[in-house]
Design brief:
heterodimer; A: 789 residues; Rossmann fold; seven-stranded mixed β-sheet; B: 175 residues; alpha+beta; Arc Repressor Mutant, subunit A; Glutaredoxin; 2 domains; four-stranded mixed β-sheet; 51% helix; elongated; binds iron/sulfur cluster; binds FE2/S2 (inorganic) cluster
């Protein structure tokens, strides 16, 4: 750990850190552009010059390229390096247009800040500036190439780090151009990172263009709710509208990258159909009236029929605190412990992940540093996109990635894919020593320096995750083989911890169907489509005396509710999510609840109606709502402190702050025994596996307008040989027959998928929503559309 | 990519850009090369020799033969100013504008050519014979001022010499 002196101030930095890193540590601003923590240094912009007074190389140097040494003396204030930086600043600005007043980057522009930081002010250059013709890069990103300073951060982020193949740098000298070969939408699933990485206004967010100036923007650190990884985000908005999402920075998880689903998929919070008013039997009512009605009805129900007749359902969408309060509500009314996922197999997978000791779980940071990753039953781009980026970093550093999965998995890097059915994968894991492939992989993992196993809760289920854990233990050589479970929601893991310990997989539907249950409370959950058998579930819900729903999405269950209470979204309240590796991460409120001005004003002048409140601002946070039912008056901090006292393994919860890197949960001590594998008869020669769609597979994406062009269209995947055997080809219209009905779809041939299966990307909000991923394959039949007519 | 299903149209375009035997020869080379992208300049030159320049389709064809993406070919194609991504005259003239040639009358050469051909730098004569392009050092500083026409280098230029060369090329074009 070298200790060096910069401008007479001393600092000790990590081995290998650069002089620029050391300056940053001291809070000394050395202007720089091409260097980025996640991309490393290339020395392209020449802006970061400093003078090294003592050290193995002396004189004017680029601070991003010089490694900090013990005893080094550095100056940033001397005349030589100061005037050098000012000259570089002036030179970089010769071609830059003077268009800050109309540039969306203005106010949060690294070029603005660091040009001033470089000491350059008055431009002397009077010649013509070079100009470019911009490209249309699709619905997400606007390009304004004239603003480019040739730092190359965009290509390094898009191509090198994220593996995008349709973006590059063209031309030479003054003519350098960063873009696509031809105009058209950027293809990478991580294209939005261009916005964060370009230090100038070349690439800006088209979806929030000209909406809000940076200094008027309300921003707060948050956590992405679109999958279980819990990437750090920085959402921003104004006038009750969520306008954009940027990547936060958490080296332990997503580093500085997020996926496009997260970046362009937050518009659901502004959805015009978002339910914002409390209702009793469909009629709008005062929030407080509805709340007391609910309380009364629950009390009288429990008094008359007993607490056993009440059920509660939490969800992976709701915050950990809200889910925990729901459990207290169950206690208050003498009801059984809530379920935390309407999908019993998914709930069990979350519990299984939670039972893995914290020391055996990998973080994304550890995964990036692995040299051999075995991915069992995960399609990263669909289920946990930033995992795909982490896998790419493994391969870039010379490591290997092996994927065992029935789906036609794609990754932005080279990898080995073994396509085998879900059943074969589970059987293999149950007796890996008898399976040639797994046995050979086991030996390779054992020999690896930092092996990691990635396991998909949806495909493997809880039983499969437990088998994976056993397998990982047999793979530990000199170093431990860590596990990276992938679950399906931002708080699946947290929900799993709250489930009733000891019990086997529970199915809410069985309880509802046996007729003893009279009331159900759903916390930000939509059992009507989240349960694997939505038809039966919907019937069961309709038979209840009381269905109470707290939510902020326009769901089926909201429409069916007798009592509805609107809740705030994560952008409007504070809370905590526990991600797939047991990391508790806090999010902070960004905007106030209420109908966005853009919606209420219809794009024109806001309503000319005078009132003391903001229209549509009724929602309370789910936490607050439950606290009211529990007569609990603590603030969020007090609540967290109380939770910590009650559940010691959550001991760091009250130390969380939004924007920090989160804290790993300690072991909570539930040990799940390996359960019997779900064995099922392989009836029928062709079986259907519902799978997660890359875009539109979650409830949020389908309600987010900017993602519309990327949403998966309904189709059925089939292996081309399987199709040919039936006389079908690509695009063929077919009828898919299953126990839940028949569906007209077109076939999409996927060479890399397993044979003997067809797969359906699930799409909530379409007729296909009766299928939910996370289960086992089901029997089905295929007919050509006209045969069936 | 041009291989979007319409197979016969694709073959037509390919035939225009390169002869089948040229394409086959390149495909054989690619199969034997560890990093096929090393061949990108050779391939672009071949396309240029046959067509006078490299069109978008030419870039796409090269990408297809080499098994890389079109942008990867384009990055190289646009880096080198001797690969023409726009149609040029039959004799593209690259006039050196770097320091040695400049100190020995390079500007005069450039002005003279512009006057004689009645075009500005970057333009092509109406008869389609000449295109004037400035270039950086041609590596012939010892024989400055210099220029390059097609792939041929001319050094120690004088105005009289220039007129003679232009005349000679005009004759050649007639014959
Ligand atoms: S487009 Fe932006 S990131 Fe890319 S080189 Fe130019 S200034 Fe740098
Ligand atoms: S990978 Fe998951 S958590 Fe991370 S940004 Fe994408 S959807 Fe959000
Ligand atoms: S940041 Fe050091 S040269 Fe660009
Ligand atoms: S300067 Fe003209 S050839 Fe070198």
């Amino acid at each position: 750990m070298p200790t060096l002196t910069i401008d007479n101030r001393t600092v000790t930095v990590a081995e290998g850190a650069s002089v620029l890193d050391a300056a940053v540590e001291l809070g000394i601003v050395v202007p720089h552009y091409c260097y980025h923590q996640a991309l490393g240094a290339v020395g392209a912009c020449r802006q970061c010059a400093v003078t090294i007074l003592e050290g193995s190389q002396k004189g004017l140097k680029m601070s991003c390229l010089v490694t900090a040494e013990d005893g080094m003396q550095v100056s940033t204030c001397d005349e030589e390096s100061r005037s050098f930086r000012a000259q570089v600043g002036e030179w970089l600005m010769t071609n830059h247009p003077h268009d800050c007043p109309v540039c969306d980057e203005g106010g949060e522009c690294q070029l603005q800040e660091m040009t001033i930081g470089s000491g350059h002010g008055i431009r002397r250059y009077r010649g013509n500036k070079r100009t470019h013709t911009n490209q249309d890069l699709g619905p997400f990103i606007t390009q304004e190439m004239n603003r480019c300073i040739q730092c190359y951060r965009c290509v390094r982020a898009y191509k090198d780090y994220c593996g995008g193949e349709d973006f590059g740098v063209m031309g030479s000298r003054q003519r350098v151009f960063f873009g696509r070969f031809k105009e058209g939408p950027l293809e990478s699933d991580f294209s939005g990172n261009l916005i964060d990485f370009c230090p100038t206004g070349v690439f800006t967010d088209k979806t929030s263009r000209f909406k809000t100036r940076y200094w008027d923007l309300q921003q707060a650190p948050s956590i992405c709710p679109h999958c279980s990884l819990g990437c750090a985000t920085l959402p921003g908005g104004r006038y009750q509208q969520l306008q954009r999402v940027r990547s936060g920075s958490n080296r332990l998880t997503n580093d500085s990258f997020i996926c496009d689903r997260a970046r362009f998929g937050s518009d659901w919070a502004n959805h015009p159909q978002r339910p914002r008013e409390a209702r009793i039997d469909g009629e709008k009512a005062e929030f407080s009236v509805v709340l007391s009605q609910l309380e009364e009805r629950l009390q009288s129900l429990v008094d008359t029929y007993g607490g056993e007749t009440l059920r509660l359902l939490g969800s992976p969408r709701a915050s950990f605190e809200a889910n925990l309060l729901l459990k207290k509500l169950a206690v208050r009314f003498g009801a059984p412990t809530p379920c935390y996922d309407a999908h019993p197999r998914r709930a069990f997978a979350a519990r299984a992940a939670g039972s893995i000791p914290s020391g055996q779980l990998a973080s994304l940071q550890q995964l990036r540093a692995s040299d051999l990753v075995l991915v069992a039953g995960v399609d990263p781009l669909a289920e946990a996109p930033v995992l795909a980026l982490a896998l790419r970093q493994v391969v870039r550093a010379g490591g290997r990635v092996v994927v065992l999965d029935p789906r036609p998995v794609e990754l932005p890097c080279e990898f080995e894919h073994h396509s085998l059915t879900q059943e074969a994968l589970l059987r293999g894991l149950s007796a890996p020593e008898e399976n040639e492939l797994l046995e050979s992989l086991r030996q390779q993992l054992e020999a690896a320096h930092h092996p990691v196993l990635v396991g998909g809760g949806d495909l493997l289920g809880g039983a499969g995750l437990l088998l994976l854990r056993r397998f990982s233990e047999s793979c530990c050589g000199d170093s431990d083989c860590l596990i990276f479970p992938v679950l399906h929601g931002p708080n699946s893991y947290g929900g799993g911890l709250l489930e009733e310990p000891g019990e086997r997989q529970r199915d809410l539907l069985e309880d509802l169907e046996n007729g003893k249950v009279r009331a159900l409370i759903c916390l930000e959950a939509d059992p009507a489509i989240e349960h694997p058998d939505p038809g039966r579930m919907q019937l069961a819900l309709a038979r209840l005396d009381l269905l109470a729903v707290f939510d902020h999405l326009p769901t089926h269950s909201v429409a069916a509710a007798n009592i509805f209470l609107p809740t705030r979204t994560l952008f409007e309240c504070g809370g905590t999510y526990v991600n797939n590796e047991g990391r508790m991460q806090a999010f902070a409120p960004v905007i106030e609840p209420g109908i966005p001005l853009e919606v209420s004003g219809g794009g024109g002048h806001p309503l000319r109606q005078f009132d003391s409140g903001v229209p549509g601002s009724a929602p309370h946070s789910a936490i607050h709502l439950l606290q009211q039912l529990l007569k609990d008056r603590q603030d969020l901090f007090g609540l967290r402190r109380q939770i910590v006292e009650e559940i010691p393994c959550l001991r760091d919860l009250d130390r969380l702050e939004a924007g920090d890197s989160g804290r790993r949960m300690a072991d909570c001590g539930e040990s799940l025994e390996e359960s019997r594998l779900e064995i099922w008869a392989q009836e029928g020669e062709l079986r259907l596996l519902p799978v997660m769609a890359r875009y539109g597979g979650d409830q949020y994406s389908r309600l987010s307008q900017p993602l519309a062009s990327r949403l998966q269209q309904p189709c059925l995947w089939i292996h081309p040989l399987e199709a040919a055997e039936r006389g079908f080809g690509e695009g063929q219209r077919v009828v898919l027959r299953t126990a839940v009905g028949h569906f007209r779809l077109s076939l999409s041939c996927k060479e890399k998928m397993v044979r003997g299966r067809v797969m359906l990307p699930c799409l909530p909000g379409t007729p296909l929503e009766v299928f939910t991923p996370g289960g086992l394959s089901i029997p089905c039949q295929l007919y050509a559309e006209d045969d069936n007519a | 990519m041009i291989c979007l299903g319409n197979f016969s149209a694709e073959i037509e375009i390919m035939k225009k850009l390169l002869l089948k035997k040229q394409i086959d020869a390149f495909r054989r080379k690619v199969a034997k090369t560890e990093h096929p992208r090393e061949l990108v300049i050779d391939l672009l030159r071949e396309i240029q020799d046959r067509n006078g320049w490299v069109s978008d389709e030419g870039v796409e064809l090269a990408a297809q033969i080499l098994g890389v993406t079109p942008i990867e070919v384009e990055e190289v194609a646009t880096f080198y100013d001797k690969i023409y991504r726009q149609p040029v005259g039959r004799y593209p003239i690259h006039i050196c504008d770097s320091i040695c040639c400049w100190s020995r009358g390079g500007e005069e050469i450039a002005n003279h050519l512009q006057q004689q051909l009645e075009i500005k730098l970057g333009e092509t004569t109406t008869d389609g014979l000449f295109t004037l392009l400035p270039t950086c050092c041609l590596g012939g500083c010892g024989r400055a001022p210099s220029m390059m026409i097609g792939r041929r280098f001319y050094g120690n230029l004088s105005l009289a010499e220039l007129d003679r060369i232009i005349e000679q090329l005009r004759e050649e074009a007639k014959g």
